[in-house]
Amino acid sequence: MTDEAVVDADRDVRAFLGMNTASAYVAAAVFLATYSLMNFTSSDGVRSVWVVESAVLLVSAAAFALVAVPGDPLAARWAVAIAATAPIATAVVLLQLPVPVDNGVQTWPLSAAMALCGFVSVRGRTAIGWIAMASVVAVCIVWSAATGQGPAHGVVMSIINVAPLVMATFFALTFRSTAAAVFELRGQSRRRAAENAATSAALDERDRQLERLDQLARPLLDKLASGAELDRAEREACGLLEAALRDGLRAPGLMTDDVVAAARSARARGVQVVLLDDGGLAVLDPTVAHRVQAAVADVLTHATGEVVTARILPPGRPTIASILVSDPTEDRRIELDGYGSALADTGA
C-alpha cells in the first residue's frame, strides 16, 4: 500500500465510526432480516409480499453499500444511488398496501428511508440526503392524494421522519468537524514519527560511518601524529585509505564488502578505480541491486588494465549501471539492464 493510500484510508470516516468492521456488516444483515420479518409478518391486505420483499432487498443493498464503499466524503454517484433507493422503495411498497393501511408496520420504508438518508448525511452528502427525504415525502403525498386520503395524510405519515434526519444532520456536522481535527492530529503524529525515524536513521548512519572511519584511519593517524616516518607500505596504505573514503562519499550504493575489497585489491595492483553513484540503486529491488554490486565487484576482481570506471546511473534510465574498462589495447564498456543483467559488451 502506498503512502497516499494509507493516508486516504486513515481519513475515511468509516474507520472513525467503525463502519468498516465486521460488526457493521452484521448490522447491515440485521437490517435486511428485520425488514424482511416485518414484511412477512404484517402482510394483511398487501397485494404481493414478494414485490415488497424486492424493496427490502433494494434498501438492504443500499445499507451494505453505505458500509462497504470507501472514501470521505462518499462519492457523489454512490450517494445518489444509495439515497435514490429511499423514494423508490417507498413508492414500490405504498403501491402494494391496502387503503387504509392495515398495520402501521407496513409503512416500514419511511423508517428505512430515514436511516439511509441520515447515514448519507453522515458520510458527507447532507444535501443529497435531504433531497432524497423530500422525495420520500413527495411520494407519500402523491400516493395519499391518489388513493383518496388527501395530501395532508401523506404529509402527516412522512413528516415525522424529518425530525430524526434533523438530528442526524446536526450530528453529522458536529461529528465531521471533530473527525477532521482528529484526522489532522493523526497526520501530524505520523509526520512526527517519520521525522523522528529519519533523524534516528541519520544518527545511526553517522555512528556507523564514524566507527568505520575510526577502524580504518586511526592506526595511520596515530602513526602520523607520532612524528615517525612512514615507510613505503604505509604510504601506499594511506593512498588506498584515501581512495576508499572517497568511494564512500561518491558511491555509497556500491559500498558492499565485496566491492570495497575488490576495489582495494585492484588499486593495489595499480589499477585506477573510479566509483560513482547517481542514485539508481536506491529505487530498485534489493535482489537487483545486489546483482549490480556483484557485477561491479567481479569486474574489479579481474581488472588488469589502467582504469576501471563503474557508475550507477540516475533512476529512470533503461540501464542501471555502466562499467568502462580501459586496457592498453582497447576500451570496453559493460552495461547492466533494469534487471541487473549484463548487456553485450560494446566499444567505449
Widest sheet: strand ordering: 1-2-3-4-5
Give me the Rg, rounded: 37 Å
> Can you tell me the number of structural domains?
2
What's the overall average pLDDT, rounded?
A: 82
Straight-line distance between termini: 42 Å
Quaternary structure of the protein: single chain
Number of strands: 5
Overall morphology: rod-shaped
- What's the order of the H and E elements? HHHHHHHHHHHEHEEEE
- The residue fraction in helices comes out at 55-70%
Alpha plus pi helix count: 12
**Strand residue content:** 5-15%
Structural class call reads: alpha+beta
Please characterize this protein's 3D structure:
This protein is α+β, with helices and mostly antiparallel strands and 348 residues long. It folds into two domains: 3-188, no CATH class; 250-347. It contains twelve helices and five strands. The chain has a five-stranded mixed sheet with strand order 1-2-3-4-5, with helices on one face. Helix 6 runs parallel beside helix 9 and helix 7 (126-146) runs antiparallel to helix 8. It is rod-shaped. 28% of the residues are buried.
Labels describing this entry:
alpha+beta; 66% helix; rod-shaped; 348 residues; five-stranded mixed beta sheet; 2 domains; 12 helices
Secondary structure: elements and pairs:
Blueprint: H1 3-10, H2 13-17, H3 22-41, H4 49-68, H5 76-94, H6 108-122, H7 126-146, H8 151-159, H9 162-226, H10 232-250, H11 257-268, E1 272-277, H12 286-301, E2 307-312, E3 319-326, E4 331-337, E5 346-347
Helix pairs in contact: 3-4, 4-5, 4-6, 5-6, 5-7, 6-7, 6-9, 7-8, 9-10, 10-11, 11-12
